[in-house]
Automatic annotation (TrEMBL):
GO MF annotation terms: oxidoreductase activity; zinc ion binding
Requisite cofactors: Zn(2+)
Keywords: Metal-binding, Oxidoreductase, Zinc
Xref: InterPro entries: ADH-like_C, ADH-like_N, ADH_Zn_CS, ER, GroES-like_sf, NAD(P)-bd_dom_sf, Zn_alcohol_dh
Keyword S-adenosyl-L-methionine set for record: no
SUPFAM superfamilies, A to Z: GroES-like, NAD(P)-binding Rossmann-fold domains
Name listed for the protein in its UniProt record: L-iditol 2-dehydrogenase
Family affiliation: Belongs to the zinc-containing alcohol dehydrogenase family.
Organism listed in the record: Streptohalobacillus salinus
Domain Enoyl reductase (ER), first and last residues per copy: 8-345
Organism placement in taxonomy: Bacteria, Bacillati, Bacillota, Bacilli, Bacillales
Record keyword Flavoprotein present: no
Amino acid sequence: MKSLKLYGKRDIRYEEATKPAIEKQDDVIVKVKAVGICGSDISRYMKLGPYEEGMIFGHEFSGVVEKVGRAVVQLKPGDRVTGCPALYCGKCESCKKSEYARCEKLTVIGSTYPGAFAEYVKLPAENFVKIPADVDFDAASMVEPSSVVIHGLYKTMMHPGAEVAIMGSGNIGLLAVQWANIFGAKKIYAIDIDNEKLAIAKALGASATINPKDGPVHEQLMTLTEGRGVDVAVEAAGSIVTSAQVFSLCKKGGSVVFLGIPYGDVNVERFYFEKIVRNELKVYGSWNAISAPFPGKEWETSLQFMASGQLKVDGLITHRLSLKEGPEIFEQIANKVPGIGKVIFYPEI
């Protein structure tokens, strides 16, 4: 079968791979219809390299059930599904408490287990969620990043009438803008250095936008909020700079949730750090997109709001490509070619 394998930093190859086979009684093989590039895929491609050289890459996907193990009763060939890529050990202290996102050996496909940049992918039956008829494969491939966002927002107890600041207007930030609206936020402030991304955030429901190039972010926000700050600040950029700045955006007693992953040391100036202490902020780290019962309410909720039309992802997709075009688009992203948002591969073409 056709696939994309990661061999090293900036070394991804379009190659033939062995089609997965049923080995365990709960195995399910899915024919991949759509699979997206995740921000973490870009970081591994550009900065970290693979967990295992030559592993089939990718983990955000949807498709059609091809074959199931003999113990699988909830799925059958022909079912339309999206797949949770996370694999937990089930034995550690966290897993015994059903805190799967905190599993000591948590991994995802595409790292040490073959991923979804391929014509077929295999996972346990419990990792699949059926897709409603009115959710297409493109949208369903983005249930995983949507679930990443809502997993973090659930921690904050965001409530109707809240004011929310979201740092970063990449795919995660743009999903966060929409989820904040769904949660009933009164005001949503999108923050990014790219005015084109800010325009998309505004179109998706941001009340106002802030570009750090126009002045210190906290000063601009305090002007917009008449000195109050926000109830919830979301770090969705994964930048070492914004990971410190985000503490200056909340009102006293507010919440900060980290969705982004800064690949570097975060140096927090005294001004920002004191906001945590003096404003008695609640700071949440958020990892992955899973909860109990596995894979978690994040997945069903994402599909529910995609089906209702309240969570829109089509406008985030800028490129729809074949796997053969993978090496080229990854290199374009690494070279910061403008105009590239969400990239979806169709392994069939």
